[in-house]
Amino acid sequence: MPVKPEPLSDDSFRSELDFADVKGQESVKGAIEVAAAGFHNLLMIGPPGTGKSMIAKRIPSVLPKMSFEESIETTKIYSVAGMLSGENPLVTRRPFRSVSHTASGVGLIGGGSVPRPGEISLAHNGVLFLDELPEFDRKVLETLRQPLENGEITISRAAGAITYPCNIMLVAAMNPCPCGNYGSTIKRCTCTMQQVSKYLGKISQPILDRIDIQTEVAAVSYDDLTGSGKSESSAAMAERIAAAREVQRERYKGTDIRSNSGITPDKLHDICVLDEKAEAYMKLAFEKAGLSARAYDRVLKVARTCADLDGSEVIQKKHVARAVGYRSLDRKYWKNALPL
Ligand SMILES: Nc1ncnc2c1ncn2[C@@H]1O[C@H](COP(=O)(O)OP(=O)(O)OP(=O)(O)O)[C@@H](O)[C@H]1O
Ligand SMILES: [Mg+2]
Ligand SMILES: [Zn+2]
After folding, report:
1. Nearest protein CA to atom 6 of ligand 1, as residue
2. pTM of the model
3. DSSP string, 160-226
4. What is the per-residue pLDDT across 295-311, written as a single tens digit (0 to 9) for each?
5. Residue 49 CB less than 6 A away from ligand 1
6. pLDDT tens string 154-207
7. Domain 10-226 has what CATH class?
8. Is 83 exposed, middle or buried (0-12, 13-18, 19+ CB in 10 A)?
9. pLDDT at residue 336, as a whole number
10. 6: Cα separation from own chain's centroid
11. Cβ atoms within 10 A of the Cβ of 197, count?
């Protein structure tokens, strides 16, 4: 029996969990706002119990609406995976796929004797959430490199190859070391340097390079946690994110680009126009902070999103500074920071 597609209703975008429950952590929420507005990958790093998992679970509540086209694309994948039901014939909410570190490579990427899309494709046009990132098998994580770059995954098998789309926003969370307190100004890390290096080393540089927005999640102060101060709601964040996404929709009309994270190299410099001070700052950051060529392109795209959230057509120094700031953790933790 043919099923009539349900209209896309506003209701289907709501999620019960709200950012209003998260006390403090303003800078983390800011990072999430930029990530969701431009569809950039995000990494949260910090000690246990600081709210990383809690925050990640609230991301669906601020994601912009799916376009009809996106909805159809994602629905096709769920159809191939046999995951559509009569009541749920059309995927109208951006997927949020939380994957356990015990997941196999096939489960994550797709494949098998009867090839199925993996979690990365089930997350198409939405979020793939990897909590406790270093607990994943390093080989499994490495398989994410190509799909994260290309937005599609090709599974080869005897009878030929199948390609599934996987245009995702990767969200990852992790402790910086086995005890969790490395880098903390409050609690002492009890790990040896070797243990810290080994732990961080599970995340390779090429994977880190693909995560545009890296943010530290520090312990919330007692006052913030117990104070009556109201935290901003998901609705307020979602409104700014939707406005920034609308700017992008207009800008990319008639192209294959959907959001700033998808700007193609040939259009990068036409779209990401820096004013003079921003240009000078970018040059300084590139030389002094030793940004790689890949990081340079990605910083520009994030700066574009910061400017869009700010309602600015031209990218200013403050936007570049914010974007560069989101790249600083790999230097603090992975590169020249050992020992702290
Ligand atoms: N900022 C916060 N505001 C309100 N409650 C918080 C906050 N941070 C943590 N909590 C409380 O602490 C609990 C644990 O937080 P959560 O599991 O998100 O920490 P985590 O950073 O993921 O820790 P781990 O590194 O151990 O996984 C939450 O369920 C919540 O009850
Ligand atoms: Mg957690
Ligand atoms: Zn430690």
Report:
1. 51
2. 0.92
3. EEEEEE---EEEEEE-SSSSS-TT-SSS---S-HHHHHHHHTTS-HHHHHT--EEEE-PPPPHHHHH
4. 888 999 999 999 999 99
5. yes
6. 988 777 788 999 999 999 999 999 999 998 888 899 999 999 999 999 998 889
7. alpha beta
8. middle
9. 52
10. 29
11. 14
Asked whether 176 lines ligand 1 (CB < 6 A), one says no
Neighbours of ion ligand 2 (CB under 5 A): 52-53
50 Cα nearest atom in ligand 1: 21
The owner of tokens 């009539």 is 4
User: Which residues make up the environment of ion ligand 3, defined by Cβ < 5 Å?
Assistant: 177, 179, 182, 189, 191
Q: Which CATH architecture has domain 256-335?
A: Orthogonal Bundle (1.10)
Cα 175 to middle of ligand 3, angstroms: 9
List, for residues 28-38, the tens digit of each pLDDT value: 999 999 999 99
The answer to whether 89 and 3 have CB atoms below 8 angstroms apart is yes
CA distance 338 to 340: 5
For ligand 1, atom 16, which residue shows the shortest CA distance?
A: 51
Cis peptide bond prior to 339, omega within 30° of 0? yes
Q: Which two tokens stand for residue 2?
A: 């043919």
d(CA 216, CA 115): 38
**What ligand has the least distance to the C-alpha of 47?**
1
The DSSP letter of residue 191 is: S
Task: Express as a percent the part of the chain with pLDDT over 90.
Answer: 70
CA 28 to chain centre: 12
**Residue 320, number of CB atoms within 10 A of its CB:** 27
Q: Which amino acid is at 262?
A: G
Where helices occur in 39-100 by DSSP H, the ranges are: 52-57, 68-80
Reading the block at residue 178, the tokens are 């086995």
Place of tokens 């929420």: 29
Map out the domains of the chain as residue ranges: 10-226, 256-335
Whose Cα sits closest to atom 26 in ligand 1? Answer: 48
Q: Indicate whether residue 53 lines ligand 1 (CB < 6 A).
A: yes
